Amino acid sequence: MAQPSTRQELINYCKRKLGYPVLEINVADEQIEDLVDDAVQFFQERHFDGVFQTYMKYQVTQDDIDRGRARGGTSSSVGITTTIVNETVGNSTSFKFEENGNYLPVPPSVIGVNKIFHFDGANSITNNMFSVKYQLFLNDAYYWGSTELLTYAMVKTYLEDIEFMLTTQKQIRFNKRQDRLYLDIDWGSLNAGTYLVIDCFRTMDPNDYSRVWNDSFLKPYLTALIKKQWGQNLIKFQGVKLPGGIELNGRQLYDDAQREIDVIMEKMSNTYELPPLDMIG
């Protein structure tokens, strides 16, 4: 069908674009499956429609806290020790670097993390009876009818200014190939059961969102990849004549497909890919 909604329908669509069933497509099913995976991966990593912004919550466990607080190679309660790497500089000097297990496991579908929403200390948690915010709400709860909104807004702004100056933002580090979100924080300040909200980007899984198979970039890109593989398979048979005088020309197929891919890559950079952020400072 012209609008594929499954993996197999997309493969059949690409074959028809290349001439099947009039022509025999000399590409193995295993090769096509690999090409589909490559095309989907490229679509998810480069195309602006290949990801979506979402918010994930994570409940911190005691094992996470123990792993994050591990120091000097001491074991945590989950049996994970600090990673120790020996690096040699020159011919004689050796340095020992230590890295804590201060990370949270992240699913492979997450390819980018923007931030973790600010999780506060005792100065702003409303269920702490000794906090300023708790006392503010306690004393003013019965006077909402007489309290001016301007006064309330100014007090809230003042408290946020104090919190901004005294509470530093939590620093994070993330690489999509590690499946780990590193938190450079004092893990002793966290309690088991605390929820963290992560602002991140996740890949569009075609198995969950079937319209990915009908994407206007994915269809011609996969068709060009299959055509290139077809030409690659036939290059070694250059000059072989088939019954009826038809001559295989694998090199021509390969070169044509490569030119098509080059055009698609340029269109990806100019049209479908999000521009990089400017470097400031």
For the biggest sheet, the summary is:
3 strands, antiparallel
Strand order of the largest sheet: 1-8-5
Q: Could you say which overall geometry the principal axes of the C-alpha atoms support? A: elongated
Number of beta-strand segments = 8
* Total helical elements: 7
Helix content bin? 25-40%
Beta-strand proportion: 15-25%
Please provide a brief summary of the model.
The chain has helices at residues 7-17, 29-46, 62-68, 132-140, 149-166, 218-234, 250-272, and strands at 51-59, 83-89, 93-99, 103-105, 110-116, 171-175, 180-184, 195-203. It is of the alpha+beta class and 281 residues long. It has 2 domains: 7-50 and 206-272, no CATH class; 53-203, no CATH class.
Keywords:
elongated, 281 residues, 2 domains, alpha+beta, three-stranded antiparallel β-sheet, 8 strands
Overall description:
This protein is an alpha+beta fold and 281 residues long. It has 2 domains: 7-50 and 206-272, no CATH class; 53-203, no CATH class. Helices cover 37% and strands 19% of the residues. Helix 1 (7-17) crosses helix 6 (218-234). The longest helix is centred in the last third of the chain and has 23 residues, at 250-272. It is elongated, with a radius of gyration of 28 Å. 16% of the residues are buried.
Secondary structure topology:
Layout: H1 7-17, H2 29-46, E1 51-59, H3 62-68, E2 83-89, E3 93-99, E4 103-105, E5 110-116, H4 132-140, H5 149-166, E6 171-175, E7 180-184, E8 195-203, H6 218-234, H7 250-272
